[in-house]
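For this section, I looked closely at a protein sequence along with its fold in token form, which I now present.
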Amino acid sequence: MSTTEASTLTYDVFVNDPPPQDGVLPNGEPKRFSPTASTLIYGSEDAVLTDPGLTEEQARVLGDWVGSKGRNLTDIFITHGHGDHWFAAQLLAERFGARVVASAGTIEQMHGNVATRSLLWDKVYTGIPPSPVTAVTVPAASPPMSWHMAQLGLRQRSSAPAASVMATAATVALCVRAATHKAIALMGMAATPMARPMRSP
């Protein structure tokens, strides 16, 4: 692995088609929920995915896109606990053998969304898969790991915890999510991949 390769991460964003809702808009178009943006952050071999979506169909399409990248998906990071951003996580975790991770606060919010699922989500949307909360938190301090430091493209630092990669993933995902939501509103984007390289600090 060259010096350039060792210090470079790439992220791709996939904007999934929104699930349909009952009813139509005043202009006659069918009602739809907001599109969901998922971010894949990857190096030469492994990858982290954020916000895997809501429905079985979204998981299938997103999973096919992730698979086309040819990387080993090790973690699925949930940025927050609203069901439209993670109810499909378990399907993708099982498909790729990945771990679902989130902050403690997000995990608490995930449990709250599961508790109200039958009162809200299942009344509005179809095709939502079983959504057990299997997310774990990443320890604040853990031994350096070759996946985090080398294969994902971060420079080796003896004091760098494994959680630093998840912090990087979260930061990038939240920034991309905010920018993508603006782009969706302005351009009507759906099911569109984007790619950007980035350098580790």
